[in-house]
Amino acid sequence: MSAAVLPLPLVAGLAGLLGLLVGSFVNVVVHRVPAGLSVVRPRSACPACGHEVRERDNVPVVSWLLLRGRCRDCRVRIPLRYPAVEAGTAVLFAVVALAETRPPVLLACLVVAGAGVALALIDLDHGRLPFAVTGTAALLAGAALLAGWTTTWALQGPSAAAGQLVGPLVGVLAWGGVYAALWAVTAGRGMGLGDVALAPLLGLVLGAVGVSAAVVGLALGFALGAVGSLLLTGLGTVRRGQRIPFGPFMLAGAGLGLVAGEPLATGYLRLVGIA
């Protein structure tokens, strides 16, 4: 089943608009969740003067441009990071919509993409991946995949539905198994429990896309982490042996697995003479 009642460019455009809204919410999550604050109340306010952000000043990207990057009341500069996160999430959502067209899987991928932006930024800022964000994303993505699975069962029968379970099962076992084993072997020194909790979620959703996406995404996460560690150590940004946030590398690898997992896997198998 594909999403294709609408033209793909239109689907990508609608996903991009949704990404703008989600990106605005991501900014709230990144600011409030690490501080243990509610993401619902109170309404957003300027941290300098305390005035609540007006509705007309809360339009993603556009309001920042119209305000020339400053608070309407006190004229304190609003960090460029806010519209950058909104625009970046919009682009990410559009790319995901171009890469995956099956509605339940697409919805699950978008949930993880939005949560992934928040998790990556929190990990870079605070060195942790909050279980609240990962758990909420797991519930929403799992519900989307379950809805797709039950629909397949109803329309195509149990054998087709059983076939849909193979990819997610392989993804969860591969990602969850590898990260849990590394955490156990290193006694938690190599990575945190937040990484271990995030791994099966990424494996689940990538496995729903395809086994190639799950396996390639897993491998690329470690490859990017190794290269990033070497670069940061070489530049003197981190000391040798110092733990660096691994969540962004996991998520970047997962993203590459989503958009390029199949061709990369096929190319590798041909290179080694298997395919």
Automatic annotation (TrEMBL):
<feature type="transmembrane region" description="Helical">
    <location>
        <begin position="161"/>
        <end position="185"/>
    </location>
</feature>
<dbReference type="GO" id="GO:0008168">
    <property type="term" value="F:methyltransferase activity"/>
</dbReference>
<feature type="transmembrane region" description="Helical">
    <location>
        <begin position="197"/>
        <end position="224"/>
    </location>
</feature>
<feature type="transmembrane region" description="Helical">
    <location>
        <begin position="129"/>
        <end position="149"/>
    </location>
</feature>
<dbReference type="InterPro" id="IPR050882">
    <property type="entry name" value="Prepilin_peptidase/N-MTase"/>
</dbReference>
<keyword id="KW-0808">Transferase</keyword>
<dbReference type="GO" id="GO:0032259">
    <property type="term" value="P:methylation"/>
</dbReference>
<feature type="transmembrane region" description="Helical">
    <location>
        <begin position="80"/>
        <end position="99"/>
    </location>
</feature>
<keyword id="KW-0812">Transmembrane</keyword>
<keyword id="KW-1133">Transmembrane helix</keyword>
<dbReference type="GO" id="GO:0004190">
    <property type="term" value="F:aspartic-type endopeptidase activity"/>
</dbReference>
<protein>
    <submittedName>
        <fullName>Leader peptidase (Prepilin peptidase)/N-methyltransferase</fullName>
        <ecNumber>2.1.1.-</ecNumber>
        <ecNumber>3.4.23.43</ecNumber>
    </submittedName>
</protein>
<keyword id="KW-0378">Hydrolase</keyword>
<feature type="transmembrane region" description="Helical">
    <location>
        <begin position="105"/>
        <end position="122"/>
    </location>
</feature>
<feature type="transmembrane region" description="Helical">
    <location>
        <begin position="6"/>
        <end position="30"/>
    </location>
</feature>
<keyword id="KW-0472">Membrane</keyword>
<dbReference type="InterPro" id="IPR010627">
    <property type="entry name" value="Prepilin_pept_A24_N"/>
</dbReference>
<dbReference type="Pfam" id="PF06750">
    <property type="entry name" value="A24_N_bact"/>
</dbReference>
<keyword id="KW-0489">Methyltransferase</keyword>
<feature type="transmembrane region" description="Helical">
    <location>
        <begin position="244"/>
        <end position="261"/>
    </location>
</feature>
<feature type="domain" description="Prepilin peptidase A24 N-terminal">
    <location>
        <begin position="17"/>
        <end position="98"/>
    </location>
</feature>
